[in-house]
Specification:
The complex is a heterodimer of chains A (309) and B (179). Chain A has 309 residues and is of the alpha/beta class. Chain A has eleven helices and nine strands. In chain A, helix 2 packs across helix 11. Chain B has one domain: 3-Layer(aba) Sandwich (Rossmann fold), CATH 3.40.50.2020. Chain B is globular, with a radius of gyration of 16 Å. The chains are: A alpha/beta (309), B alpha/beta (179).
Chain lengths: 309, 179
């Protein structure tokens, strides 16, 4: 087994294809571990990890925490809501205070793009980016591509359409990087107002007709409409969005093939996808959640192996 | 660098048959016994013993598993060598069973210590024994000794013991390599 080419996981942009394959192979072993009667290994028993969430998260935070605990690391959690940030402390001060408690690794989610990279430059710990604004969310992209690999055998050559709010989505950007690195073809689909102007520069095609996009694809990754990030209205009404870009069972049945439906969660049932799609055999949404733990164990394990003892 | 043949094919063969007989002597029909090859190198030895038990002694019901101990090792982050995981194949629970760990070379004993931890994930065995092809005595870091031993060798730390198997390297030979 080789080792990762990076010292921190800031984004997919910094990874090589070999890095991703190494993470996948390591995740395969951990997936086996988390399906045993005793779901724990002692590898990281002398490592302490701080989970710093400056932005709300349920799934990602729980997934990281359970991954760390399955590896026997000591874990401390921090949420912005209850912190001294409100008292005026800067990010670096907050983090350095936490690091003084001898923390080896920091998992951080932050509303500002580039926050993880900024932190990496200023503090002495391994950093995992758990989402920085609309920039990157690398572990989500890794678990999404890992889930595609698991379902279809490999990612190379597969056609993936990312549907919805591309503009505000770090999941979209990280997914585009990861899919392209692994040799998949990527299209984005959504209302023009939610598609970034320079998306073509990433080598991604835009399709505004949902049915055409789905007909082309092997996998559709449905993104959530991020109302909380929108300062202005990007579409007339939720109802109109759903009519044009919501996936329904009827729409899927009109296609001449069976495609895979993914969703990073949390689902707005009845907006991006209807309940009968979310609960159908075509959806692998809960597999994604399970794989998320294995992927986060793999990333944590591989980065921890670079901490000098 | 020089290398010396410790065991040739014929000697390996004789030893494997002896070890198989010793296992039968102790475990009879293997109804409550599980053989566990420690990944990656113990797998071949476990497979070979199983083959002898089946072809020469008509014992077909032996359960065999392969256990990977990578994530249980105590030298994580302490050695420059990157630890490579292999596949674990354990389709059963070891609760109440007599387990025999099988590995090619016993050196410091740390792999066996890791295996003793790892096996706990699959239940509480009634007993655990250790079968080793090559026992490098005088080099133990931990109080661990084999129950079944192929050959004992006195090798110094600078020397390496390499076990080659027909399945992977095309020959059944054990070498002592001097750096």
């Amino acid at each position: 087994m080789s080792t990762l080419s990076v010292e921190h996981l800031l984004g997919i942009k910094h990874l090589t294809k070999e890095d991703i394959h190494l993470i996948f192979e390591t995740a395969d072993h951990f997936k086996q571990v988390i399906n045993r009667p005793i779901k724990k290994v002692p590898s990281l028993r002398d490592i302490t990890i701080a989970n710093l969430f400056f932005e709300n998260s349920t799934r990602t935070k729980l997934s990281f925490e359970i991954a760390q605990k399955r590896l026997s690391a000591d874990v401390i959690n921090f949420s912005a809501g209850q912190s001294s940030l409100k008292k005026g402390e800067t990010l670096i001060d907050t983090v350095n205070n936490i690091l003084s408690m001898k923390v080896d690794m920091v998992v951080m989610r932050h509303p500002k793009p580039g926050a993880a990279e900024f932190l990496m430059q200023h503090v002495d710990a391994k950093i995992i980016n758990a989402g920085d604004g609309a920039h990157e969310h690398p572990t989500q992209a890794l678990l999404d591509t890992y889930s595609i690999r698991e379902k279809l055998g490999h990612v190379e050559g597969k056609k993936v359409v990312i549907v919805g709010d591309i503009l505000h989505s770090r999941v979209a950007l990280s997914n585009i990087f990861a899919l392209q690195l692994l040799g998949a073809k990527v299209k984005v689909c959504g209302p023009k107002s939610l598609i970034p102007k320079y998306i073509h520069e990433l080598g991604v095609e835009v399709e505004t007709n949902l049915k055409k996009a789905l007909q082309w694809s092997d996998v559709a990754n449905m993104l959530r409409v991020q109302n909380e990030r929108m300062e202005v209205s990007y579409f007339p009404s939720t109802r109109e969005y759903t009519q044009q870009y919501g996936v329904t069972k009827a729409l899927l049945d009109e296609l001449d093939k069976s495609i895979i439906i993914m969703h990073p969660g949390p689902i707005n049932r009845g907006v991006e996808i209807t309940s009968d799609v979310a609960d159908s055999n075509q959806a692998i949404i809960l597999d994604q959640v399970e794989n998320g733990v294995a992927i986060r164990m793999a990333v944590t394990y591989l980065l921890a192996s670079k901490i000098k003892s | 660098m020089s290398q010396k043949v410790l065991l040739n094919e014929k000697e390996v063969n004789i030893i494997l048959h002896r070890l198989a007989c010793q296992l039968i002597e102790k475990h009879n029909d293997f109804s409550n016994t599980i053989l566990i090859g420690l990944q990656p190198r113990g797998k071949h030895l476990a497979d070979r013993l199983l083959q002898i038990l089946q072809s020469d002694y008509n014992i077909f019901d032996t359960q065999v598993g392969y256990l990977d101990i990578t994530f249980y090792r105590d030298d994580f982050r302490r050695s420059n060598k990157v630890l490579e995981a292999s596949e674990t194949q354990m389709d059963f629970i070891v609760e109440g069973k007599n387990v025999v760990f099988i590995d090619d070379v016993l050196y410091t004993g740390r792999s066996i210590r890791a295996a003793l931890t790892a096996i706990q994930s699959y239940g509480r065995p009634k007993s655990i024994e250790l079968l080793i092809l090559i026992d490098r005595r005088f080099s133990r870091h931990l109080p661990i000794q084999p129950d079944y031993r192929g050959r004992q060798v006195d090798a110094i730390d600078e020397e390496k013991v390499i076990v080659n198997w027909k399945e992977t390297q095309g020959e059944d030979t054990v070498y002592l390599i001097k750096q």
